[in-house]
C-alpha cells in the first residue's frame, strides 16, 4: 500500500492538466487477471503537441491497487498520440527498481514517473534523474528529498481517516456513550499511522463517542477475518467499525456474519467494487467506504506530458505545474455510490 508524505501537499481534488476527477478503489477481491477499471474520461488538452517519451517505473503489481495504478498509466498514455510510454517490469526489490530507472535515464526519456517500492531507498536515483535534466513525477510513495522530484502527486491517508471518523461521528452524534472499533492495516507502515491519526482527530469532535478497541490486520482477507473475530469476541456491543482496507474488509464481513452481529455500521477504506455493490444493496453493516484513488497514475501521466511540453495546469493561472498535489478522499455511501460505481475495479 502507498505511503504518504508527512508534510501535506497542495489539496487538489480536481484534475491536473485534465487529469481525471474520477476516483477509484485500492484493493482487489477478484482474480489478478481481472482487468481493473480505469478512467474513461477523455484526457483534456489532447491536441497533439511536442512528442514526449515518458518512463514509468513502479513496484510489482501484487495488489489490486498497484495493478490499477499500472492500468491507469497505460490507458492514459494511449489517449495521447504525442506520448510514448516506456514502462518497466514492476519490482519490489529496490536494487532492481533502481536499475530499471537508471536504464530509463540512460535512454534519455523526457520525463520519469516513479512510484517507488521504497521512497527512502530510491531517493538517490530520483536525484540522479533530476540532475540529468529529466523531471520526475513522484507518484504516491514520496522520496526523502523534494529535490528528487519536480512534482509529487498522491493520496491523503490522514484525510481517509479523518473523513471516516467524521462520517461515523455524524451518524452517531445523537447516541450517548457510543462505542467504535478500528480494524487497521499494517502497523509498520506510516500510512496506517496516518489513517489512525486522522480517525482519532475526527472523533475528538464527538465527545459522545469512545474508541474502545483497535486491531491491526495485514491488508489481506485472512487477517481481516481473524482480527475482526477477535474484536467481536472482546466487544459484546459496538456502534461503529472503521476498516482501513476493503480487501481485508471481505474477511471482516465474514467474521461479522459468522458471529451473527449486525448492531453497528461499518465504514471501509479504498473503494473496491465489491464494497460499492454491498453499499448499494444496503442490506448489511457496510454503509460507506472512503476512497484512495489509483487514477492518480493517469494524472501523473498528464503531469509528465505537461512537463515534457512545457505546459502548466489547465484551469490554473500559473505557468508551472504545482510542486505537490494531494488527492481528496471522498466518502461513498448509498447517496452517491451510483456515481462512483463505474470507477470500482475487481
From TrEMBL:
Domain Periplasmic binding protein per the UniProt entry, residue ranges: 54-311
Keyword Signal on entry: yes
Taxonomy, superkingdom: Bacteria
Signal keyword on record: yes
UniProt subcellular location: Cell envelope
InterPro entries noted in UniProt: Peripla_BP_I, SBP_2_dom, TAT_signal
Region named Disordered: 27-50
Keywords attached to this entry: Signal
PROSITE patterns: PROKAR_LIPOPROTEIN, TAT
Xref: PANTHER family: D-ALLOSE-BINDING PERIPLASMIC PROTEIN-RELATED
Family: Belongs to the bacterial solute-binding protein 2 family.
Protein name: Substrate-binding domain-containing protein
